[in-house]
Amino acid sequence: MAEPAPRTILHVDIDAFFAAIEQQRDPRLRGRPVIVGAGVIASCSYEARRFGLHAGMTLSEARRLCPDAVILDGHAQVYRCFAEDIFERCRRVAPEVETYLDEAYCDLTGTERLHGDAAQAARALKADIVAATGLTVTCGIGPNRMLAKLAGKTVKPDGLARVSPGEAEGFLVGRPIEQLTGVGRAHARTLRSMNVRTIGELRALSIEALERLFGLNGRRLHERCRGHDTAPVLAREVPTSISRETSFHQHTADRTEIEGMLEYLVGRACRTARELSIAPRTVAVRLRYADGEFAEQARSLRLPSDADPVVLELARVLLARLFTRRVALHGAGIVLSNFTPAGGDQGSLFDEREAGRRGALLRAFDDVRSAYGHGVLVSGRALHLRGRLEEDRHGFVLRTPSLTK
Q1: Fewest CB atoms within 10 A around its CB: which of 4, 45, 79, 323?
Q2: Least confidently predicted of 260-269, 299-308, 370-379
């Protein structure tokens, strides 16, 4: 299947995101192996990667491989500010920009008269970003999202690469199967067990065989291994989920602290949902015990709601069902999903008049926090965190919580 029209997509990836920001904030860390994470590595510098360290590795293993590594808890609010600055600079170059945690897709199609050649525009963007933030980014340019991202992976860090439509065939065929978008670890194991090791070798499998193996994703893989990716760049993509998670600074079984943290995370997640004008129907609570065990439960609200009290009530029910072991907690999190367009607060615990008042109050809170920082307002059980956790204008300083997904 051919692409419907030629496109020019620029992929921008912030190099060693969290770790690079910490090195930028503290010059003493430059040139040293830096790890950001709690329990596992969330991000590590390129100096650390030379020792074999990577995201997702346990900190105990990281210490064994690199005893001199500097390990930091992280400052998620600071990272978000750096990312938004970079993404805003991307929006000055491209009319459509789709952003994620540390990367952005920019549709440069038709911008040649304004910015010149795409490679020229990318070089100017890279220079603008490093001058403003001190951070480097890697850029890949291609006729679709998949090829643009893959092109960038070949020149990290601080690189720029371009794959033209005519080069796509030679660029793809010899690459490891794991590099194809949509092939995770499980898919890769299945394919390698069938002696399919490269993207080119995947082309030998029919679309029917791939669908039997991987369902709908098999059809996508059939197209992608041939260099086709018709997914558009959308300036405002509704996320599949919004999660707010953190590790506790010390393992805890204190119900007051746990419930306070849960309420704080619910407030952060619901505020993000309101900013996106979406309301979740499904709420999940995640716990990670000190011994490494995980527990998660999800339930649906009677009606979708972005109101903190409605989501919190269900989250507390899930917490009571989950936290039953006599083991302290390492971390906790809240996940909102199954979104619908927000249509006003429809919480089942309040009549229509009170729900309207509550919605107006939450919007007023959001306005105040947007102006003065999230930390200016703390309420409910989250007040119990005061004196236990460091605070700044963005709120409580957590241990590398996830940003929105």
Answers
A1: 4
A2: 370-379
